[in-house]
Amino acid sequence: MRPFKIFTIRTILVAGILTTLPWQAGSEPRSGTPPATGNGLSEEAFMRGMIVSCPRAGQIWGSPSMVEALDQLGELGVDWIAIHPYARVSRDGAVASRPASEVAYLERAVEIARTAGMRLFWKPHLAYWGSFEWRGDIEFGTDEAAWRRFFDSYQGFIVDQARFAQRSGVKIFAIGVEYEKTTHREQDWRRIISAVREVYDGSVTYAANWDSLDRVPFWDALDWIGVHAYFPLSLDQDPSRENLWQGWNEPLRQLSSLSSKFRDKPIFFAEIGYSRSHSAAREPWSPGLEDNPQALLLRQRLIEVALERIEEQPFVRGMFWWKWIPGPDPWDRDFSMKDPEARHALGRYWVTDRADETADDRSVTAGSNE
Predict the structure, then answer these.
(1) Is the per-residue pLDDT at 32 higher than 60?
(2) Which of 36, 49, 160, 194 gets the highest tally of CB atoms within 10 A of its CB?
(3) Domains of the chain: which residue ranges?
(4) CA–CA distances in Å: residue 271 to residues 83, 124, 146, 322, 324
């Protein structure tokens, strides 16, 4: 997700969640049929995911707070989580990291996820702070030595992470995240993909920002197309549900075309999120933490429309919401899916739908025994 300063535009549960919140009285009723649970591309259900983030290096992923967080996420219908181990990139291109096997909290995070019944999407990130404005600015111009240094050291990091993911039974692995100014180095990226496949036999993806999907020349070498889905949906200050619904038409048309171009390659939202802000519909990547009923309702509406529209698309495999930080933390501000309006939206769709599906299954089973 781009930082805002880069741009100027651009336990059970559902009955108990938010029933007494003052802003809920103005929320809009859900319309239409429940979204499908599969996408027609495989027998597996739509991935209902959350990115579990961290305030620092990631130690919290192996803590008791992580256990509590996954319990809370399970109650909201989440069945996949993503975590993003870090390496640090320097201005000269060097990527520094510790071997994943030496990081005890990563081993513990895998155990916690397995115990909670969650499946894992492994999404390694580069910590760019102090070197670049954001990860999409990582590039080295005409300095070929820096490019070589970057790709050689990055490959060492990402292959080590892939080897750990293989040992840990991780189902999906991202070779990169939003490195927009590096993707023209196609052969370097293809070399990395090949090296990852030598040690990892799960599904391999790359997570591209919504506005750079057509600048990834190696989609054909990947299993899935990963999208950071911060698509602008409306210029209105307070867009209606219908306005937001229509706002998804063009992004979904583009995504459908992209999937078709690569022989119906499945797409999933490797990241999607909205802040509590009046600008969330027109600049979804922008931070915000407005405490007023209009901003709360807009955020709930954005999340609900995304849940309703995306899960019904036959070419979209799943979505991972940004973000959930275990335990109390000062970094857990804008985009927090712990907020009441976000919890309500997830519970309204993912938990209610799952309960409906279970009831339908029981009905079918009962009918077959008559």
Answers:
(1) no
(2) 49
(3) 4-358
(4) 11, 13, 29, 6, 12
pLDDT digits (tens, 9 = 90+) for 309-353: 999 999 999 999 999 999 987 767 889 999 999 999 999 999 976
Under the phi-then-psi rule, with left for phi > 0, alpha for psi from -120 to 50, and beta for the rest, what region is 205? beta
pLDDT, tens only, 225-267: 999 999 999 999 899 999 999 999 999 999 999 999 999 999 9
CB burial of 260-269 (b: ≥16 within 10 Å; e: otherwise) equals eeeeebbbbb
DSSP three-state, residue 113 = helix
| Cα–Cα dist 224/209, whole Å | 14
244/234 Cα distance (integer angstroms): 7
Residue 68: other Cβ atoms inside 10 A:
13
Beta-bridge partners for 316? 267
* Alpha-carbon gap, residue 320 to 63, rounded angstroms: 22
Give dist(CA 53, CA 109) in Å, integer. 12
Which burial class, exposed, middle or buried, applies to 78 when counting CB atoms under 10 A from its CB (0-12, 13-18, 19+)? buried
Q: Does 4-358 carry CATH code 3.20.20.80?
A: yes
Cβ(46)–Cβ(39) under 8 Å?
Answer: yes
Q: Where are the alpha helices (DSSP H) in 292-339?
A: 293-310
Tell me the three state secondary structure of residue 266: coil
Which residue type does 370 have? E
The whole-angstrom separation of Cα 142 and Cα 235 is 39
- pLDDT at res. 94: 98
